[in-house]
Design brief:
511 residues, alpha/beta, TIM Barrel, 5-stranded mixed beta sheet, 17 strands, 55% helix
């Protein structure tokens, strides 16, 4: 805009100077014509031509000035629109990420003077599932609705869109009690279904909150703290707001430490792979589930529930998954007649790298894909995009069997079993434990077993811990059993020693 204004100012001065010069030349010519009546005819004609030329030049200059002024005005409008788009998100009307961060930085001085500011980071829960289920127009309307509602509830705040479904709100106050009241009003408003396109949809958001100077006076620290609080909201189940707590920094440092240690453990081959058998009703071992274990030199045995989420957040999950599959490929010949199940996380199945890695490992080891079962959780399968389904189908076409793990913990209905490319369903242990006194669990397991027989699926009961649960699971129609009653997970050597006489009698997983 400044360049155009400068050009307009300089151009106007040049135009005025030229136009004045032409006017003076025209006046002088006319003056000469009027006062010099005895001039030769040729001179009079020349002066006449000079008058016409001067008038023509003036008219051309006037037209050129109008033409240039028009295009400069258009250019100014285009530049203004570009600046507006740099400041305002075209879809939602919120500030763009760049503009919001500039706003945040510009208020750093006011933070230090008044000591009052609160940053809220907002993430729309399950946005990808919303887009996949109802289409992108509905997703766009959901984003617009979130900003519209935020403007109504947080009236004095700056609102920015930081990413696809990520928003930020900057309040000019550090009154956390007042902020919490507004957040409660925000959540209360979200409880009412929104009419988006032709659907009534309930939206859910996770929120992280940090305040200055209560937590920090630095913008970079404030955003990091709000981000940690947002992650805490997600880890706690989503759909809630969390205020930053200094303990979160300690947790983050712990995660960073564990990430470094895990990276080293993978590179130095310091992990272990334990196997837990799955058996038929007659007790024959039918398959083994490979479970990664980390026996730290100083901290002892670290639960996968601790280090797998760290691997997923840090992108170490690909390296961890490769380590597990490489070790399983090396061990597979020790278990003749058995398949080995490998768990694939949600983070892995979102990328093509998992397919490429498994192809490479099979080629390097000479193992056959038919000897392996890929286990994906129900929470991965429920919102499965076309790309995820394509990857699953690709793995299946290579020869891998596909198992749906923890069935019953999410929202995967029986209809999914017909559409998903799977070979096996593993019922979550909570249903198996409830078979004795919960009619819903009894109907659920029995119905799933019946559907499994119709669709040709293998049904595995997880978490079998005593003979009563074993009997009830078999009576409900389950094909396979897995749990501590059968065998706890153990290293390959211990498993071979315990079941040396059984592996020769084992049969195929899907036989």
């Amino acid at each position: 805009m400044t360049a155009l204004m400068n050009l307009r100012a300089v151009g106007a001065w040049i135009y005025s100077s030229i136009f004045l010069t032409l006017a003076l030349a025209l006046a002088a010519t006319v003056y000469v014509l009027c006062l010099s009546g005895d001039l030769p005819a040729s001179a009079s004609e020349a002066l006449g031509v000079d008058v016409v030329a001067t008038l023509t030049a003036g008219a051309g200059l006037f037209y050129l000035q109008r033409h240039v002024a028009y295009h400069m005005k258009r250019a100014a409008m285009v530049e203004e629109e570009k600046l507006r788009l740099m400041r305002i998100d075209e879809l939602t009307g919120a500030l763009t990420r760049r503009c919001f961060m500039e706003e945040l930085k510009s208020q750093l001085g006011s933070f230090r003077q008044s000591g009052e500011a609160t940053l809220l980071l907002i993430d729309l829960d399950e946005f990808k599932r919303l887009n996949d289920s109802f289409g992108h127009p509905v997703g766009d309307q959901a984003l617009i609705s979130i900003v519209r509602l935020a403007r109504r509830i947080f009236a004095d705040a700056a609102i920015g869109r930081l990413g696809g479904d990520e928003f930020a709100i900057l309040l000019p106050t550090a009154d956390l009690a007042g902020c919490n009241r507004m957040v409660e009003a925000f959540y209360l408003a979200l409880r009412a279904p929104l009419r988006l396109e032709r659907y009534d949809i309930l939206l859910s958001v996770s929120i992280g909150i940090a305040a200055a100077p209560l937590h920090t006076t630095l913008v970079s620290d404030l955003t990091q703290m709000a981000d940690l609080a947002l992650y805490a909201s997600k880890d706690a189940g989503r759909g809630r707001a969390t205020v930053f707590d200094p303990e979160m920094l300690s947790d983050e440092r712990q995660r960073s430490f564990m990430e470094r240690e895990l990276r080293a453990a993978i590179m130095l081959n310091q992990l272990e792979l334990h196997y837990q058998p799955m058996v038929r009703a007659d007790g024959h071992i039918d398959g083994l589930e490979a479970l990664v274990r980390w026996n730290h030199d100083y901290r002892g045995m670290i639960s996968p529930a601790e280090f797998v989420p760290v691997a997923e957040r840090s992108m170490l999950i690909d390296a961890l998954g490769e380590w597990v599959f490489r070790r399983a490929c090396g061990d597979i010949d020790s278990f003749p007649g058995c398949t080995v199940s490998i768990n694939v996380s949600a983070a892995q199945i979102q990328r093509d790298a998992v397919v490429v890695m498994m192809e490479r490992m099979l080629a390097e080891s000479g193992a056959r894909a038919e000897r392996f079962v890929i286990e994906i959780t129900e929470t991965v399968a429920t919102p499965a995009s076309d790309d995820v389904v394509r990857r699953i189908e690709r793995l299946r076409s290579m020869g891998f069997r596909i198992a749906l793990d923890d069935f019953g913990t999410g929202y995967c209905g029986f209809n999914y079993l017909k559409s998903l490319p799977i070979d096996c369903v593993k019922i979550d242990r909570s249903y198996i434990h409830s078979l004795g006194d919960d009619e819903v669990a009894q109907v659920f397991v029995a119905s799933l077993s019946q559907i499994g027989r119709i669709l040709g699926l293998t049904i595995v009961a997880e978490g079998i811990e005593d003979e009563t649960e074993r009997s009830r699971a078999l009576a409900s129609g389950c094909d396979r059993l897995q749990g501590y009653l059968i065998c706890r997970p153990m290293p390959k050597g211990a498993l071979l020693e315990r079941y040396a006489s059984r592996f020769g009698k084992a049969r195929s997983f899907a036989a």
